[in-house]
Amino acid sequence: MKSKITNCYIHIPFCNTICSYCDFCKLYYDDKYINNYLSQLEKEINSIYKGEELETIYIGGGTPSSLNIKELERLFNILKVFNKSKDIEFTIESNFENIDEDKLKLYKKYGINRLSFGLESISKKNLDFLNRNISKEKINKTIDMCRKLGFNNINVDLMYALPTESIEDLKSDLDYIFSLDIEHISTYSLIIEDHTMLKINNVKNISEDLDYEMYKLICTEMKKHNYEHYEISNFSKPDFYSKHNLCYWNNSNYYGFGLGASSYAGNKRITNTRSINKYLEGNYILENIELDDRDLYEYEIMLNLRKADGILISDFENKYNCNLRSKFKELLDDGLLVEINGRIRIPEDKWYISNEIIVRMLED
Ligand code: SF4
Q: Do 118 and 232 share a domain, yes or no?
């Protein structure tokens, strides 16, 4: 099994405010932690990274843009250790609430070439529900600034299926996002996770029918605006697919550094601790799991089938000695899978039930 790593995720767990739905690995920004955190991050990277040429680096969170200029500059200097390919995709997540021109200029100086913003919604009642606070004015101004500074690859996240949201609200959010003319849109259907404010407040999910209607609206509107639906929840203008996220969906290897981050190398999945105290003491690792052939086979199916282009049959046969055409003949005959150009995929009109299809594939 190949274990050359060309992708790297860096986790910055700090946030200025905590969103009501969030179960990510995060903590309130507190400047007393930041320097120690960056020191430990540097040690972790230097003890594990083997010098491979990286094709993607993704700085996520938390909210990396919650760091101040000095802290961000220190972070970028730590990341200089990476050997970067000349056409690397170098992404940083930011929130509109705490981004400004100086930070964007710093991103540019250190080679960031893809920006990802949490937008989620523009409706006041949805933002209140999510405990977020952004305005169209701030978003418009920020996107203008990004363009002036030469950023030409921008993603925004859109959240839908909120109990406070109607189909009309979602349509307004979409229209607003289309007016920004950005390159990539990631969508998330709200899931009420344990240990979140929403769960504590006993908030319930919307009905499956409405969720499906919203998903269909998103797919139709994206198509109308020429965004390619290249993964179940991700849409992009041509040539702006997220290379970093494709590494996950292609079941490729990656490094993950920082609190709660995961790495995947060969048949090993290593997950870091979510305890800031342990991390600051240098006890990074929470678990180190060795995957067997069956696990690898399942990951390959589950992840690849999230993509529009699915699984390359010949590649799968070489890796797992398994003939996909005969193994999944029934699903192919039922139209739940299709074969196009030597690849097996879930047809787009069945993506909404992809979980059920994948469960059937993994049953035997
Ligand atoms: S900004 Fe992101 S990581 Fe921070 S609380 Fe909100 S959703 Fe969670």
A: yes
Residues 66 and 215 placed together within one structural domain of the fold: yes
Closest CA to 192 of 166, 161, 217: 161
Residues with CB under 6 A from ligand 1: 15, 18-19, 22, 24, 26, 61-63, 95, 118
Question: Atom 8 (ligand 1): residue with closest C-alpha?
Answer: 22
Ligand 1 site-directed mutation target among 11, 12, 18, most atoms within 8 Å of CB = 18
- Point out the domain boundary residue: 228, 249, 270: 249
Overall domain count for the chain? 2
Look up the CATH number of the domain holding residue 13.
3.20.20.70
pLDDT of 1 strictly over 50:
no
- Give the strands of the sheet with 114-120, arranged side by side: 228-231, 234-236, 184-189, 154-160, 114-120, 83-95, 53-61, 7-12, 255-257
Q: How far is the CA of 67 from the centre of ligand 1 (A)?
A: 14
Q: Is the pLDDT of residue 37 over 70?
A: yes
* Centroid of ligand 1 to alpha carbon of 119 (angstroms): 11
Cα(56) to ligand 1 centroid in Å equals: 22
Domain containing residue 360 = 312-364
In a domain, 108, yes or no: yes
**Domain endpoint, select from 198, 216, 249:** 249
Give the pTM: 0.96
In a domain, 189, yes or no: yes
- Give the tens place of pLDDT for each residue, 207-222: 999 999 999 999 999 9
Is the pLDDT at 2 greater than 80? The verdict is no
- Mean pLDDT of all residues in 140-160: 98
Residue 50 Cα to ligand 1 middle (Å): 31
